[in-house]
């Protein structure tokens, strides 16, 4: 009888993801305000009380404190444990889909590429929430990510330096053209922020032009669907700006994990329609 595989790697990855999610909460709050993400220690924004380590355990502390500060009783936003749980789940998905198959190859180059891709996908979580809160995507993510992607393309692997540059141009260029078209269609001075363009240049440089194009089109479809739905429900004014970063993040995640399957399905669907 074949023994069952040990769940220890998955448990470790999930715990690491929860801890990383707790750190992401700090990044999301402090980075746009120009504050250090390391010092000072976490504190209650209401009473300023420093939060001891025992009260800063991901998910567990929120439940034990019943969602309130132990000092002043101020309600703790539900978003904090949700981001921790989301990051824990995302870390498991990245482990199963990217890291575990890479480690199975025992190839140092494959593992190096997989680690960079995993780190990039997880880093998109704070990117999305910062854009939701402030309508910005900090350059520290996109520019450093683009530099790391270009550097990694010189290692043996599927993405060559030329493919990385073409991917950056395809991802950022496609979004830039969408933004220019949006200016004309919606008669707005700025329909697409440069932060979004730099974000897709980073992701295109890491995964190549095919993934970048699929990610942009998925994000555009999702963004249009949500925007039209909110307008129809009168939950959104026509002149209200919608952060596009979260849609780009979701589109990229889907493109990286299921892009090839989606393209194959789409092409086979078109072929069946033409043969009718």
Please supply descriptive tags for the structure shown above.
276 residues; mainly alpha; 0% strand
Task: Write a structural description.
With 276 residues, the protein is mainly alpha-helical. It contains nine helices and no strands. The protein has helices at residues 8-30, 60-64, 79-105, 108-134, 139-152, 161-186, 194-207, 209-232, 245-275. The mean pLDDT is 87.
Oligomeric state of the chains in view: single chain
Main sheet specs: none
User: Which of globular, elongated, flat, extended, rod-shaped describes the shape?
Assistant: globular
Give the C-alpha Rg.
Answer: 21 Å
Contiguous runs where pLDDT drops below 50 for at least 5 residues: none
Helix content: 55-70%
Mean pLDDT: 87
Tell me what portion of residues adopts beta-strand conformation. Answer: under 5%
Q: How many structural units, i.e. domains?
A: 2
Order of secondary-structure elements: HHHHHHHHH
- What is the rounded distance between the termini? 50 Å
Name the structural class: mainly alpha
């Amino acid at each position: 009888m074949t023994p069952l595989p040990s769940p220890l790697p998955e448990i470790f990855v999930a715990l690491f993801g929860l801890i990383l999610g707790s750190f992401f909460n700090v990044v999301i709050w402090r980075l746009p305000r120009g504050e250090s993400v390391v010092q000072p220690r976490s504190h209650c924004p209401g009473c300023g009380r420093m939060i001891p380590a025992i009260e800063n355990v991901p998910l567990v502390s929120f439940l034990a404190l019943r969602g309130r500060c132990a000092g002043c009783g101020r309600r703790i936003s539900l978003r904090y444990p949700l981001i921790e749980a989301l990051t824990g789940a995302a870390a498991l998905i990245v482990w199963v889909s990217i890291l575990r198959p890479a480690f199975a190859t025992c190839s140092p180059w494959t593992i190096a590429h997989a680690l960079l891709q995993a780190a990039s996908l997880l880093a998109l979580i704070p990117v999305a929430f910062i854009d939701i809160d402030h309508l910005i995507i900090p350059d520290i993510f996109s520019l450093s990510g683009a530099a790391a992607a270009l550097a990694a393309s010189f290692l043996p692997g599927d993405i060559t330096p030329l493919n990385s540059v073409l991917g950056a141009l395809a991802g950022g260029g496609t979004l830039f053209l969408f933004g220019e078209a949006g200016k004309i269609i919606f008669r707005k001075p700025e329909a697409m922020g440069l932060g979004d363009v730099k974000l897709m240049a980073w992701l295109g440089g890491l995964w190549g032009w095919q993934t970048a194009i699929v990610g942009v089109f998925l994000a555009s479809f999702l963004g249009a669907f949500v925007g039209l739905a909110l307008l129809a429900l009168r939950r959104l004014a026509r002149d209200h700006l919608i952060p596009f970063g979260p849609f780009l993040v979701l589109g990229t995640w889907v493109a990286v994990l299921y892009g090839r399957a989606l393209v194959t399905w789409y092409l086979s669907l078109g072929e069946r329609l033409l043969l009718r």
